[in-house]
Design goal:
This protein is globular. It is built from 3 helices and 7 strands; from the N terminus they run H-E-E-E-H-E-E-H-E-E. Helices cover 23% and strands 27% of the residues. It has one domain (3-140): Aspartate Aminotransferase, domain 1 (Alpha-Beta Complex). The protein has helices spanning 3-14, 66-72, 100-113, and strands spanning 27-30, 37-45, 56-63, 78-80, 89-93, 127-131, 136-140. The chain is of the alpha+beta class and 142 residues long. Strand 1 and strand 2 form a beta hairpin. It has a 5-stranded antiparallel β-sheet.
Length: 142
């Protein structure tokens, strides 16, 4: 999957457009409602990722579960997150067709992990007090 194919897919899937805050080719993928990043597409020198080839490659950084990151890191096409928290983010090399489905799955997980938290209306009241003639009762909602 190339960066353009990725951008087409995220437009269709999430209705978001890549943003270019640094005025170069590096793009941020954000939620429309909370502006949190769910992905970053970066041009990175291959040697900075420990690859033997020279040149610039595109990578996608996604947020993920630390256990999943640990199991993927070290496999072909997966790297510790470039320029991000390496425990919670993972870099995936773009342009490897065998990773296309994994990229979509991991990007979907990242989108969910960075989505706004839904509040439970019952949990907004942590406790309620009622006083009767003989006792004082505390209701705690968890």
């Amino acid at each position: 999957m190339t960066r353009q194919e990725l951008f087409t897919w995220i437009r269709q899937q999430y209705g978001t457009e890549p943003e270019y805050p640094w005025h170069d080719w590096n793009a941020v993928l954000r939620h429309n409602d909370n502006n949190k990043w769910y992905g970053v597409v970066l041009e990175v020198s291959a040697d900075k990722l420990g690859l033997p080839e020279a040149g610039i490659i595109d990578v996608l950084n996604v947020k993920s579960d630390p256990l999943l990151i640990g199991s993927l890191r070290g496999q072909d096409g997966y790297f510790p997150a470039y320029h991000m928290n390496k425990e919670k983010w993972l870099s995936i090399q773009l342009g490897k067709t065998e990773l296309d489905d994994a990229i979509k799955d991991l990007l979907s997980l990242s989108y969910e992990l960075t989505a706004p938290k839904k509040r439970n209306p019952k949990s907004s009241a942590l406790c309620r007090f009622r006083h009767s003639a003989d006792d004082f009762i505390v209701f705690i909602r968890k």
